Amino acid sequence: MSWIAYWNAKPTVYVNDRHRQVHYEAVARDIAAVLPGRTARVVDYGCGEALSAGLVADHCGHLYLCDGAESVRARLVERWAGRASIRIISPPQFEQLPDTSIDLIVVNSVVQYLSVLELQRLLAIARRKLKPKGALLLADIIPPSVGLLTDAAALLRFAAAHGFFLAAGAGLVRSFFSGYRRTRSELGLLRFKEKEIVDLLARSGFRALRHYPNLGHNQKRMALMATPQGEPFPATSGSTTAA
Hints:
Blueprint: H1 3-8, H2 17-32, E1 41-45, H3 53-57, E2 62-66, H4 70-79, E3 86-89, H5 91-96, E4 102-108, H6 116-129, E5 130-141, H7 148-162, H8 165-176, H9 179-187, H10 194-203, E6 206-212, E7 222-228, E8 239-242
Parallel strand pairs: 1-2, 1-4, 2-3, 4-5
Antiparallel strand pairs: 5-7, 6-7, 6-8
């Protein structure tokens, strides 16, 4: 099974509807916090179900929700049919967007499911699509030191704070036997140390800084804000430190 095939089916990464809802709310709030302005053109690449994309669309000019899974896109089209400022696109349609037309590209919890070559290709495309003063936010990047136990602990803390702790505990037991775990074991996840991903971004024409917080609940994973080389970093509410 490929990762695209997995996401086209019914994924088992969420323990219940409450988990799914608060996850997407948290990610949407974090994206909204780094938007460069009310007129910004934004791409959420690998957006998933994007249940709270309206929170992002409320604070930008146009939001492209891009996902590689056909079944996910079909649900997105239905969900956001009434929002003229939200457009659902596939990765090939992302490639067809006009060059230098996008202010912010968000790639959250996607890098781990790519090969190095696929990531390099995505970075090259993103570099072309960004305006000269645009930015790329890579988030939820997994360091080599972060494994299943670390992820489980982060989920339990998140669940305790949002009222689904017992469901999360039961979900972790189920996930041991789940399709996600089998697919993760078969295909592996792409991992980077901070310097490794910064160097890869540099070779792809970006300068990058570590960005805090990571999008979503797992702060053991990394986020980086990257701009075309030579451009200053945009002012956002998220803090950055030199890598």
